[in-house]
Amino acid sequence: xxxxxxxxxxxxxxxxxxxxxxxxxxxxxxxxxxxxxxxxxxxxxxxxxxxxxxxxxxxxxxxxxxxxxxxxxxxxxxxxxxxxxxxxxxxxxxxxxxxxxxxxxxxxxxxxxxxxxxxxxxxxxxxxxxxxxxxxxxxxxxxxxxxxxxxxxxxxxxxxxxxxxxxxxxxxxxxxxxxxxxxxxxxxxxxxxxxxxxxxxxxxxxxxxxxxxxxxxxxxxxxxxxxxxxxxxxxxxxxxxxxxxxxxxxxxxxxxxxxxxxxxxxxxxxxxxxx
Length: 275
Known about the structure:
three-stranded parallel β-sheet, three-stranded mixed β-sheet, single chain, 12 strands, alpha/beta
């Protein structure tokens, strides 16, 4: 849903996760402090609830919450993170598609009669401070940060990286994703409708550029300050050869990422060493 009152009341679901926390940070900075791209709102009233305070699968509790709080805008960033992405990413993809299709159905059924305006975004691979650096179930950037850091501390002669190093991947800093969500939320509805369709309503959020996993490993190695070698293990599967999103719609809507990959990696590594 989307609305533009002078002082909007905004509910962020999942505010303790990486995505939700980034949206909260960006809302506070952009609206109250104006930032470098001020918009019409002078400030916001943020509403958050922990899972213990509000179970989002409890329909009665959710209805009671919305009836009491009456938020003008809602950012739904609450989700359960799956396990490995390859080859078991199908359930994860189905869950995202189901959410988008649910929003489209509500828009078609209640858009005109009740002023419902759900908007969906599809982000590329995300990273930032506060990531999951677990040695077994983290994503590629936090996994490599941990691996290179431990190799540096232990003076290991080399670090082994899965795959051949040739697949290309796209990465976006989390706070840039949060800015994009807020940008999309505050678009005039006529503009949003111009770039979407009733049955294909989401907007991709991506950096617009990609790099090989070898280039990524070399970049993280440099950020960490590891001096040893990198060995690639071709026995491990490469996965898809390339994953670059088409983010031309978002670019046409006057949005660009602000944080370059190297700068973002520096921030992420600085966060990791404080854990």
